[in-house]
Amino acid sequence: MKPHNLIKIVTVGIVGFLFSTILNASSSYPIKMTSFMDKAGNTIGTLTPGTKLDVIKVSGKKTKVRVHGWSAFGAETVIFKQVGKRIILSILDESVISKVKKGQSKTDEFESVWNESSFTGWVKTSALINSQEKIWEKADNLFKQRCGGCHQAHPPHEFTANQWPNIVKAMKDRAGLSIDDQWLLTKYMQAHAKDIK
Ligand code: HEC
Questions:
Q1: Which residue has the higher pLDDT, 191 or 108?
Q2: Looking at the predicted structure, is the pLDDT value of residue 80 above 50?
Q3: 3 state SS for 151-172
Q4: Most buried of 47, 54, 92, 144, CB within 10 angstroms?
């Protein structure tokens, strides 16, 4: 191989590596139900496990993040992942609703109006992980341990994203799930549901 070709390959490799590191660094995910705080550290809402967050800045023990999704007209405290699916990303306090940034609006098949919504706040850095896969792995272990004892385990793709919250809720006590487990499993089942690509 000619030396300049080698240099080219190495350069492309380094640039690619740096770029992917930057991309990875820009998203993070709460491991479990996590407090969403204002700058002063007051809780102003909750983030659900596995929710994709844009990292704005890390300052030691706290990280500034943005959650982005959709809210339904008349129920602005809840930010959902997408229009018409009950995949909850964040539940905000009534008191901060006026600070939610609104984008475009859409009307779903039931004539409900949805608004693109994003909200910025702070979370504990230790509550975050930069791999959503790791969170789903943990959820999958929970699913394998707790959901196949009484009947054949019903895999995520058997039901829709809107069906899973009630199913997991109905099985919660039977499977001995804590509230955190319930949220983690619900988010995992929804992320892999039959109507989610
Ligand atoms: C202690 C026993 C037990 C455990 C553990 C259990 N289930 Fe069930 N599950 C049942 C019974 C009994 C039914 C029958 C319907 C009913 O009574 O609700 C059922 C029904 C279901 C159904 C409905 C099937 C259908 O065709 O409508 C789903 C889905 C389901 N379970 C999922 C789960 C998941 C997910 C978990 C783990 C979080 C779980 N189950 C853990 C006992 C259990």
A1: 191
A2: yes
A3: CCCCCHHHCCCCCHHHHHHHHC
A4: 47
Name residue, tokens 């496990």: 49
> Ligand 1 centre from 29 Cα, in Å?
29
d(CA 161, CA 163): 6
Between the CA of 172 and the centroid of ligand 1 the distance, in Å, is: 9
**CA nearest ligand 1 atom 24, residue:** 154
Q: What is the pLDDT of residues 109-144, one digit of tens each?
A: 889 999 999 999 999 999 999 999 999 999 999 999
Q: How far is the CA of 159 from the centre of ligand 1 (A)?
A: 13
- 132-191 topology per CATH: Cytochrome Bc1 Complex; Chain D, domain 2 (1.10.760)
Ligand 1 midpoint to CA 113 (Å): 34
Mean pLDDT within 152-177: 98
Residue in 25, 47, 27, 52 with CA at minimum distance from that of residue 37: 47
What is the residue extent of each domain of the chain? Answer: 28-129, 132-191
0.85 exceeded by the pTM?
A: yes
Q: Whose CA is nearest to atom 12 of ligand 1?
A: 150
Residue 124 token pair: 């504990």
Q: Write out pLDDT tens, residues 3-39.
A: 566 556 555 555 554 444 444 458 999 999 999 999 9
Angstrom CA distances, 74 to 118, 120, 187, stand at 16, 21, 23
- Token digits for 60? 């030691």
